[in-house]
Amino acid sequence: MMIWLLSALWLLSIPSLGAMELPGIPGFIDEMVIKHQFQRDELVQIFKRAQYRQTAINAISAPTTIKPWPQYRATFTNNKHISDGLKFWQNHINALQRAEKEYGVPQEMIVAVIGVETNYGRNTGKFNILDTLSTLAFDYPRRADFFRNELEQYLLLAREQKFEPFKIQGSYAGALGIPQFMPSSYRKHAVDFNNDGAVNLFNDPEDSIGSVANYFKQYGWQNGEPVAARVKLNEKTELNIKEIHSMATWAEMGVIPVAQTADLNSAWLLDFTVPEGKEFWLAFKNFQVIMLYNNNIFYAMSVHQLADALRDARILN
């Protein structure tokens, strides 16, 4: 116990490491000056304030621990999340109706994404974005290029939006605001949906609603088509998990939708472990679009099922 206590006190006594001490920052500053005409002294002062964050490295590099599907699903598709989602929907009904009309993305899908990402804007992250992106860009080799680009995009965003880059908080991966857009997505897909002359995803639900809908449309959301369909398998079906076939081909292989659904040309089979055994779904193009928001099958299915639950609950109410 004494050894542990002395070690902990020693760690706390180490001064924080400034981002300017990271190899690569000086060259990055040179690039930003040449490529985007930033003032060198301004960037030097910004990075002098930035701090190295081991917590960001720990969070992003730790082995992914995924809860079993029933527990993961229950995190989002529960009575509280549905109730809060219905309130968010009602509070922003006009913006959601307009977003659905303009972008072809169902209202319940937009609400579900925001619900899963930040609990309807309540939890947008507590990591300093400048610190996080600086750390990951120059001390996380596996995805250094990605985070270096996001750091570049973040500084451009700060200049365009006229906010101080060292004051913004978000996720441990650098995602921002109510819909958790990465800086590059913020600059590319965020929209001024309430027409107030500013694009604000930090605390403006209307801009966030329009931006999520625009993101989905830009990545190929198919208006009116399903996301996924629950299916049953006959006893002789040979599983081809994640292979892509037409619905007709899947039917020939003994994979039959539980309820009538569109006859689509591209679908792949997913399985989820539940207490009763296995649950099977066919996933379509729109499921892939959700995964472009977050490349995780559990995430995409949670968004889909929360959207369905919200829609059904709204109809009942």
Main traits of this protein?
single chain, 317 residues, alpha+beta, five-stranded antiparallel beta sheet, two-stranded antiparallel ribbon, globular, disordered N terminus
Q: What is this structure's SSE topology?
A:
Blueprint: H1 2-13, H2 25-36, H3 40-49, H4 54-61, H5 69-76, H6 79-91, H7 93-103, H8 107-118, E1 127-128, H9 129-139, H10 144-161, E2 169-170, H11 183-189, H12 205-218, E3 228-233, E4 244-245, H13 247-252, E5 255-257, E6 267-274, E7 277-283, H14 285-293, H15 297-316
Antiparallel strand pairs: 1-2, 3-5, 3-7, 4-6, 6-7
Helix pairs in contact: 2-3, 5-15, 6-8, 6-15, 7-12, 8-12, 8-15, 9-10, 10-11, 14-15
Structure write-up:
With 317 residues, the chain is α+β, with helices and mostly antiparallel strands. Helices cover 54% and strands 9% of the residues. It is built from 15 helices and seven strands. It has helices at residues 2-13, 25-36, 40-49, 54-61, 69-76, 79-91, 93-103, 107-118, 129-139, 144-161, 183-189, 205-218, 247-252, 285-293, 297-316, and strands spanning 127-128, 169-170, 228-233, 244-245, 255-257, 267-274, 277-283. A five-stranded antiparallel beta sheet has the order 4-6-7-3-5. A two-stranded antiparallel sheet has the order 1-2. Helix 5 crosses helix 15 and helix 10 (144-161) packs across helix 11 (183-189). The N and C termini lie far apart (57 Å). 37% of the residues are buried. Residues 1-15 have low confidence and may be disordered.
